């Protein structure tokens, strides 16, 4: 693909998956432009790089450079089919492709390592990226989150390997034909796309059939592959786990040997599982296991993935992307293990009306585990409201703890008054935009 001679226009460029591809193409010498509904830290970082972004959906707002029929238009499924600019390019006859298609094109002539699964894709891909970085390998990584150290979601050190997330939404992962892949989990989600669990499992089966080399599967997943586990013996497994508030020590078992007393610097059994499969995939790509295991101790972490923002004697503030009941349960179990004596307050912003409707009872059950629950309104993203589906309805279903409905404007002040030492912010919507204000309020108030 001749990047320097192509002009790209990304509709929804601020999306985490879109922005990494846009960044990569710009750095390869392509002309890159984009639209997004609102300015964010992601769009601002692209603008600082030199990418031109407009925040007006009108056709008249299109930069003159991209209005020609030769521009290649990339869009995300989150963009409405009624989007004026999208329709303009379709009617004009431009080549218009979904993000998944261009990601498949970019990875096709490389050794592609792809991470699939309902949960854990971003963290696993980020750990995999860190392992390749520490090994000085030739790779390019497209990650669905921002590294805490480098503040980017795309790293390129060459083109021998590509490391990507294989997203099941909209069946996007079926555009990939990876050399090595993993499936971390197959919990039901995206029922607006799949309608039922059987269709979702069929899609994962189809993805598995497209893997050209090795497929790693968590041992409880009913697909054929190289197994891994943090709870029982498997082809790759971990035991002897000793966890505290800094991470976990463990013994690593691989087909080639046992590596004892290793350390991973992140909290949670789910993250340890993510680290295990990332290591297994990297080893299959030819990187030395002993070096990979040592590198786990220096993983920099990803923003909004159990990110500890405050860790003081009287207050701990943690931010996480969890938006599915299974993910919230994993966060709760991690907090229970790491901070067993402390009460816990959760702030939850439900993501999508359809997901809230599908898992209302499960959300209520898992949120009831916390000592205090603060509920924000549902973040709609691409959806219109569904009658009878709201945070107010969810509040009535939560039993036990103190439960409040709250607005984003009220949130920082309210959190400064709660008694619980542990505060965790959860959701895949725009709750992340509130983090810095909350952090400042808690640090400032408690310094007085």
Overview of the molecule:
With 448 residues, the chain is an alpha/beta fold. It has 3 domains: 3-98, NAD(P)-binding Rossmann-like Domain (Rossmann fold), CATH 3.40.50; 108-298, UDP-N-acetylmuramoyl-L-alanine:D-glutamate ligase, CATH 3.40.1190; 307-447, Protein-Tyrosine Phosphatase, Chain A (Alpha-Beta Complex), CATH 3.90.190. 33% of the residues lie in helices and 24% in strands. The model has no long low-confidence stretch (mean pLDDT 94).
In CATH terms, the superfamily of the largest domain is Mur-like, catalytic domain
Please indicate the count of domains: 3
Helix and strand content put the structural class at alpha/beta
Number of helices: 15
Report how far apart the termini are.
58 Å
Helical percentage: 25-40%
Question: Gist?
Answer:
By secondary structure, the chain is α/β, with parallel strands linked by helices. 33% of the residues lie in helices and 24% in strands. The chain has three domains: 96 residues, NAD(P)-binding Rossmann-like Domain (Rossmann fold); 191 residues, UDP-N-acetylmuramoyl-L-alanine:D-glutamate ligase; 141 residues, Mur ligase, C-terminal domain (Protein-Tyrosine Phosphatase, Chain A).
Please tag this protein with its features.
Protein-Tyrosine Phosphatase, Chain A, UDP-N-acetylmuramoyl-L-alanine:D-glutamate ligase, ten-stranded mixed sheet, 15 helices, Rossmann fold, 448 residues
Task: Tell me the layout of helices and strands.
Elements: E1 7-11, H1 16-27, E2 31-35, H2 41-49, E3 52-54, E4 72-75, H3 84-92, E5 95-98, H4 99-107, E6 111-116, H5 121-134, E7 139-142, E8 154-156, E9 161-166, E10 180-183, H6 191-194, H7 197-209, E11 214-218, E12 226-229, E13 236-244, E14 247-254, E15 257-264, H8 269-284, H9 289-295, E16 307-311, E17 316-320, H10 325-338, E18 344-348, H11 353-358, H12 360-367, E19 372-375, H13 391-397, E20 402-405, H14 408-415, E21 422-426, H15 435-447
Parallel strand pairs: 1-2, 1-4, 2-3, 4-5, 6-9, 6-10, 7-9, 10-11, 11-12, 12-13, 17-21, 18-19, 18-21, 19-20
Antiparallel strand pairs: 7-8, 13-14, 14-15, 16-17
Helix pairs in contact: 1-2, 5-8, 10-12, 14-15
């Amino acid at each position: 693909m001749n990047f320097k001679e192509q002009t790209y226009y990304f509709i929804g460029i601020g999306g985490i998956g879109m922005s990494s591809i846009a960044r990569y193409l710009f750095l390869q010498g392509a002309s890159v432009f984009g639209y997004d509904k609102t300015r964010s830290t992601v769009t601002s970082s692209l603008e600082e790089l030199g990418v031109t972004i407009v925040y007006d959906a009108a056709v008249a707002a299109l930069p003159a450079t991209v209005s020609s029929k030769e521009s290649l238009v990339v869009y995300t499924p989150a963009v409405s089919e009624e989007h004026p600019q999208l329709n303009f390019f379709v009617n004009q006859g431009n080549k218009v492709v979904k993000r998944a298609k261009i990601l498949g094109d970019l990875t096709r002539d490389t050794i592609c390592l792809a991470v699939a699964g309902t949960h854990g894709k971003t963290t696993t891909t980020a750990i995999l990226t860190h392992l390749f970085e520490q090994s000085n390998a030739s790779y390019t990584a497209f990650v669905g989150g921002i590294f805490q150290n480098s503040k980017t979601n795309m790293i390129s050190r060459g083109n021998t390997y590509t490391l990507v997330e294989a997203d099941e939404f909209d069946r996007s992962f079926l555009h990939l034909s990876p050399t090595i892949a993993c499936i971390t989990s197959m919990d039901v989600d995206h029922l607006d796309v799949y309608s039922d669990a059987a269709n979702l499992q069929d899609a994962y089966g189809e993805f598995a059939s497209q893997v050209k080399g090795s497929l790693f599967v968590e041992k409880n997943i009913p697909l054929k592959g190289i197994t891994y586990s943090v709870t029982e013996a498997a082809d790759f497994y971990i035991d002897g786990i000793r966890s505290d508030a800094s991470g976990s020590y463990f013994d690593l078992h691989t087909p080639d040997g046992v590596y004892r007393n290793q350390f991973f610097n992140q909290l949670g059994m789910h993250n340890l599982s993510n680290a295990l499969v990332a290591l297994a995939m990297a080893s299959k790509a030819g990187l030395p296991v002993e070096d990979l295991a040592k590198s786990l101790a220096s993983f920099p972490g990803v923003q909004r993935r159990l990110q500890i923002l405050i860790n003081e004697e009287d207050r701990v503030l943690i931010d996480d992307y969890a938006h599915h009941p299974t993910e919230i349960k994993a966060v709760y179990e991690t907090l229970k293990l790491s901070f067993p004596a402390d009460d816990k307050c959760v702030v939850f912003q439900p993501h999508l009306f359809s997901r809230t409707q599908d898992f209302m009872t499960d959300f209520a059950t898992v949120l009831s585990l916390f000592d205090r629950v603060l509920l924000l309104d549902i973040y709609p993203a691409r959806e219109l409201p569904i009658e009878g589906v709201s945070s107010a309805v969810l509040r009535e279903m939560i039993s036990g703890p103190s439960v409040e409905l709250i607005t984003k404007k009220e949130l920082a002040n309210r959190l400064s008054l709660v008694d619980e030492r542990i505060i965790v912010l959860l959701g895949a919507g725009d709750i992340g935009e509130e983090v810095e204000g909350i952090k400042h309020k808690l640090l400032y108030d408690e310094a007085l």
